[in-house]
Amino acid sequence: MSSRKKTLLKVIILGDSGVGKTSLMQQFVNSKFSHQYKATIGADFLTKEITIDNGKQVTLQIWDTAGQERFQSLGVAFYRGADCCVLCYDVTNEKSLNNLASWKDEFLIQSNASNPADFPFIIIGNKIDVDESKKIPSLQKKLNNITNNQLGGLNYPVFETSAKDAINVEPAFEVVAKMALQQEELNDAGNDVNDDYNDAINIHLESEGSGCAC
Amino acid sequence: MEPENRESSSDSPSHDNEVEISKENTKSSPVSKVLLPEGKKRNPSYVGDPTTAVDMGNVSTMSMASNNVSPKMNVIPAQKRNIPRSIRSDQDSDVASEFQLSHSQNGDDDIVNNESSNVEENVEENDGDDADEDDEEDLHNILNDLIRHEPQALYTTASQSLAAQNVAPTSSNASTILDYNIFPYNESDSELSENSLISKYISVSKNDSNSVFHSKYKQVFVLSSAGKPIYSLNGSDGVIMGYMGLITTIVSTFEETKDHEEIKSITYDDCKIVIMNRSPLILVAITKIGYEKMQLRKAADVEADIDDQSILSRQLDTLYNYLLSMISKPMITKNFHNRMNYDLRKILTPLDFQNLDSIVMKITYGISIKEPISTEDTRNTAPDIGFGVFASELLDSALECVKLTNTTRTKLNSILLSSKKVKIPKPAEDGPSAYQTITDSIPFLKASAASDINGPTSPSATGSYGDDLLFAILLDANCKIMSAMKPKHHNLKNEDLKILLTLISNQQHLTRHTKSEEGILDLWIPICMPHFNCNGFLYAFVKTIFVKPEDLRKTSSPGIPTTIVLLSSSKNSFFHMQEVSKQIEFRINQKMPSFTSTLYQELSTTTISIFRDIHVPQIKHFIYKSRSSNQFVSSDIEEFSRGNGTTTMNILKLVYFYSTLHNTRATPIRNTDSSSSSGGSTGNGASNGNLLPAKSASESNGSSSNSTSTGRNKKLTYIKNFGRNGENIICFMLCSDKYEFYCLCDDRTITTQFLINHSLKIIKWCEKNRKRLFIDAGAVF
Questions:
Q1: Structural domain boundaries of chain A?
Q2: Closest partner residue to A211 among B237, B340, B532, by Cβ?
Q3: Architecture label for domain A7-213
């Protein structure tokens, strides 16, 4: 009965203001890119259906949040019940790279995820289309430092993308879908409620007066 | 969703508006002054945090300045303002401006904008039942008084019908769904046919297009607290997804305030949005339909002000109950426990979504209409009439019964009782009848309950088949109740039964259109009755049999379908219930041929004809609800619609008329001379919301004398609706402690005197035939 059903995954995109979160989403969902910068107010919501390699259909419900600090009050509602979180930085902006860890912490605190250690994150470095001279000097080394740091390390898959030239955007989101799905299946296995469905409590006729227990 | 900061920009705060209404009232009728205190209940409007703005991506932008959001809601100032009404009237033709001249006294007047005289009266009387003749005269005087105080209304009657003829000479006799301004009027629609109007605005459509989605009058969403969609009446996932995020954000923004406020509703422009937070689920209903924006009023409550639930929130309750019935509260809690990202759609079946569609449509429009998914798929597109479902929702979950003679009903009750007691025979013996082959495919079956069902020999070899049987119900072809049986110490709430009956009627509607060769299936439905026991499941065995007297056996006539519903407490009792159902079928169809033919006869004419049964043909349609049993009957819809448009359209009209009539403000107005005695009249025992109450309350007040304890609070409502084709429908409500009576008639054929006289005649007829119309106690074991 569930063959027809697509899995719905809630994906949150986080990162500093101006790193190109909205552009990534627009490129992924609508294959569009705009040179104009328009700060996201609060959040954007878009959906995209994709088929991942084993033929499984997945609907991604993408929550693109505002990077600007003044919108951070949206907190819990946005992060609650997410299946995967995308952490974005700008390859020309070192501060955005250094902030990734705090975005992750913020997310884990707000989302109240049940097992934070296993929560699926991915890291996207956007704007690789820009001139090499503008990029963060010795980016690879700094990135390695961040991802392999033993304390609060961000040991997650990293993608370098260009929302402008549509480089690597789709593969990145495919990995997002796969990771989220994996986590989802793990959860289902550990929490298989469909078995319990049959163990519904019976109501005994002879237990006088106890019928309306509610 | 455009931001609408009417609250802040308007220089007349809600209080001014109140005064404005009161002026209007004073002008129109002295009586209506008493209606005013209602305004005091308004909540101050809520000024939201301006930073909580949400960008809707490519859906649309909404800055959530919550200025016109009342956190505790229920009485929403914006609704009382007449802005939508005047806007609409401007767009409207001359007819509409005439409408504006006319005035209605209630606070909901922007909704019923072409209702010109709308008057309620509550009369207290202390004399006994035998005073019906006096009643008639009194009532007539009161009604006449009210109408006399409405000179303008009478004036507009004449000019409006003239205006209507001038404006729409072409459509003078064709009634359309635009009649009576039931739905929001749009200039460009006047060219559209009825069918295209219905498919544009009303039919359920899961289309991918934003514009199709946005043109619908009604939206309903169920989503998880994390913002994952679970159910939507219209639109594909892509269309609705943005709104899911938006709703989640709005709800949690209120939740996260320091007082943990809960947002209940938003009213702006032509929309009313009601939100029900049942964490981890959120239910949302949005309507543009005028009659749904009214506050729900229970005619029963004399102190009408205590009741300020909105129609939409009751609808959401019904949907929530459906979900609880299907998956039960513990299951929902368990699934979401520690994983807010849970997708509840995993455990809902396609049938659940069909049922939700059908429930929403029926409680909104009285009829369920769907867009065909593909051109070949005509199966689900036949309109599914559910006026009874609508009426039950309107009348506080009252149940609809079948008209049967008392003898027949008693006989059916005893059949249920005796079938329950049939002993499990010794192994060699055959069952008394086995001519119905049983198909084992059980579409309803979720879970793998079937695998747990053991053979008929399972639990105890010595008991009766019906040992696990808790409740039994017999339904007619339209899912009205013929007879019922219950244990002494347990009751089923109407709210629970309503879900079960809707489920069954949807299933029957579907099978009726499949023309399946396999015949009628036996169903085994695990169902949680949340008001009975919210933690566990009952198991419903459902089987349709055909009542067919002997002389019809040889003919090809299929007989009259009757449905047996057996609720068992044990999931292993399928075969036992099947056996009980065979017993019932045997007793109905074979044991006593004379009874079979009587039943067949009676089931052929279960509709109540005003013309044939009561002989007051000027009344076109009525609903009578017995308050003691919380059951109702209504007259034949065909008599209302005869020769006047399609059934669909007439049902839409009935729904509009009765909604307006029922929910029009009914503030008690006491006669000066009797007002002193009216204080303690609130506790009138209407709480009897069960089918088959443990003690039959109606038994005790069937006759006259105990009127002193409850006080005989009568009240009446009179509304005149002006149609575009000159046909004016009068809606009339009369209710007392014992009954609620609602009727419709055409003002061209009836005078106020006859209106009162005929209404009382129908009421008397219903009282006289109480045993035929209602199930008092049913069978009890």
A1: 7-213
A2: B532
A3: 3-Layer(aba) Sandwich (3.40)
